[in-house]
Amino acid sequence: MMAYHVPVLATESIEALRIHPDGIYVDATFGGGGHAALILQHLGDKGRLLGFDQDEDAQANVPNDPRLTFIPHNFRNLQQWLRVYGIAQVDGVLADLGVSSHQFDEGERGFSYRFDAPLDMRMNRQSTITAADVLNTYSADELQRVFGEWGEVRNAKTLAAAVVHTRNNQRLRTVGDLLAVAEPLARGERIRYLSQVFQALRIAVNDEMGALGDFLQQATAALKPGGRLVVISYHSLEDRLVKHFLKAGNAEGEPSKDFYGHISRHYELVHKKPLLPSDKEIRQNPRARSAKLRAGERTNFHNPS
Questions:
Q1: Could you state, in order of their start, the residue ranges of all structural domains in the chain?
Q2: What residues contact 20, with CB distance under 8 A and at least 6 apart?
Q3: Cβ neighbours of residue 257 under 8 Å, at least 6 residues apart?
Q4: Going residue by residue through the chain (305 aa), what tens digit of pLDDT does each one get?
Q5: Would residue 230 be called left, alpha or beta, if left means φ above 0 and alpha means ψ between -120 and 50 degrees?
């Protein structure tokens, strides 16, 4: 298997899954297969693992193991594909969100401001909308919302106006074109500012928050009572959504109640607070520095909807 992505919080994620040798598990973000390889080490001959990844490059990392089924699709379609393979419920689901090291380092994908490349940012290269499309077709208000909501860029309105002004004269096509607009507006640390801008565009292009919400709903429905959901997130938007789902089973974080006023709990938290990478792991893998792991154990609560 080629070097692709160092699995973050590897030991912690496997411990949180509490793997049964004969169980059925889902690696919802297969990537380089690092977490999948660890899951397979804990599975017996009757165990089964399904790996999802919409990025076609991930298929090169699939090992020849009869216990593993690779599904080249977005994890937001989890239940659909479980039905295709005749699986009603699973024992555990793991998702390591965000962009893989491989995607960041492949300059032509346009995920990083370190390389001048076409403004692409599609995780699924069969999709039609690119970052260039967002920058060149969204209105100033829509761009402000993208930068402000998805990137938490403080001067989102100013940046959106600058993009619109620039594209009125020339279409933004490359990372260099975007940097020429964004860098003069950077407030504080340049790297942090550009990271926020690129994060915002990536989330918009791939509908990452919508996909995550769909995935969390479907994972909750697919897990057996006692099954574990383990999610590693890398920014506050993702982490907040995961936290809300583990708390209440919905994106708002508002617990639902039955007729008698009893709170319907979908999960019991495995850890009271999110797990963070150690200083040693961050030194060895700097991209782990913002990771947070949250895990929940599915309760017996049944939602009739």
A1: 10-101+208-298, 105-206
A2: 47, 91
A3: 263, 264
A4: 334 557 999 999 999 999 999 999 999 999 889 999 999 999 999 999 999 998 877 888 899 999 999 999 999 999 999 999 999 999 999 999 976 555 555 556 666 777 788 999 898 888 889 999 999 999 999 999 999 999 999 999 999 999 999 999 999 999 999 999 999 999 778 989 999 999 999 999 999 999 999 999 999 999 999 999 999 999 999 999 999 999 988 777 777 766 666 777 899 999 999 999 999 999 998 889 999 999 999 998 554 43
A5: beta
Closest by CA position to 215, among listed 48, 83, 26: 26
How many whole angstroms from its chain centre is CA 180? 28
Give the angle 151-155-156 at the CA atoms, nearest 5°: 50
Q: Residue 269 phi/psi, 5° resolution?
A: -65, 135
Q: Which CATH architecture has domain 10-101+208-298?
A: 3-Layer(aba) Sandwich (3.40)
| Identity of the amino acid at 1 | M
Q: At what angle do helices 190-206 and 175-182 cross, to 10 degrees?
A: 130
Q: Are 99 and 170 in contact (CB under 8 A)?
A: no
Q: Which residues lie below 8 Å from residue 218, measured CB to CB, with a gap of 6+? A: 76, 77, 78, 79
CATH fold, domain 105-206, is DNA polymerase; domain 1 (1.10.150)
> Three-state DSSP class for 174?
strand
pTM: 0.88
The answer to whether the Cα torsion of 104, 109, 112, 117 is positive or negative is positive
DSSP conformational letter for 223: E
Measured distance CA(238)–CA(233) in Å, rounded: 6
Name the residue with tokens 């998702």: 95
User: How many Cβ atoms from other residues are within 10 Å of residue 279's Cβ?
Assistant: 9
Q: Return the bridge partners of 70, or none.
A: 51
